[in-house]
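Q: Given only this backbone (235 positions), what sequence would you predict?
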């Protein structure tokens, strides 16, 4: 006589089969997900944001009479008798540049008579690339307390010749910083705090028009002198 299957064995086999089918489905889904992944390679480098860099971080800015920086807005003359060597502008004495510069008034030459000395208003020279060509320009600042003015002048080498690319007079204590390749000058007076941003135009540094000023254009070299575009920050 043949034996009948045990009544409790069939459900056990059904459960085992169902688990096996489920595991196979999960395995297929996982493989399908893996085939969709792609290696994008090395992530591109993210350039750091441009930040300001003060020219004279230890210089305290006093509160001078109300005024604003101005630029001559003309082609500057080269300095005769001075040649730029392999060491660039860093090897040329600042006093020698100012004394021989035909672009500056007699007031500057008179101030040079007190240098070196405790009465010398000449700040430490700063070298920054303001044209984007990889070479540093020379930034000079001279404080003249008697006149209540500060001169900031930028020199650039043109081959072996040197000439200014910016001459800016402002109230005593005029200071600045670089923002990328731009030069930003700041003065504080009775009317508030003013900043003027200068940018290389291929010939000189010209004042850039703030984005909130429409209908105005920055003064270019060769035009008549006039106040440079500026940005005001109320105190």
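A: Predicted residues:
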């Amino acid at each position: 006589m043949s034996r009948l299957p045990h009544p409790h064995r069939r459900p056990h086999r059904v459960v085992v089969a169902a688990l096996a089918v489920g595991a196979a489905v999960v395995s297929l889904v996982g493989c399908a997900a893996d085939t969709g992944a792609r290696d994008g390679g090395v992530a591109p480098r993210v350039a750091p944001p441009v930040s300001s860099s003060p020219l004279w971080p230890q210089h305290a800015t006093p509160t001078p009479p109300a005024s604003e920086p101005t630029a001559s807005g003309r082609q500057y003359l080269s300095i005769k008798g001075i040649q730029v060597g392999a060491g660039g502008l860093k090897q040329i004495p600042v006093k020698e540049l100012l004394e021989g510069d035909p672009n500056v008034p007699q007031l500057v030459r008179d101030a040079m008579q007190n240098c070196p000395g405790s009465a010398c208003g000449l700040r430490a020279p700063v070298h920054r690339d303001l044209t984007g060509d990889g070479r540093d320009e020379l930034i000079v600042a001279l404080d003249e307390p008697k006149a209540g003015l500060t001169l900031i002048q930028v020199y650039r080498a043109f081959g072996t010749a040197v000439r200014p690319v910016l001459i800016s007079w402002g109230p005593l204590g005029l200071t600045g910083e670089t923002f990328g390749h731009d030069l930003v000058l700041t003065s504080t007076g009775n009317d508030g705090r003013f900043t003027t941003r200068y940018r290389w135009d291929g010939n000189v540094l010209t004042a850039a028009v703030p984005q909130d000023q429409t209908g105005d254009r920055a003064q270019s070299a060769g035009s008549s002198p006039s106040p440079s575009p500026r940005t005001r920050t109320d105190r």
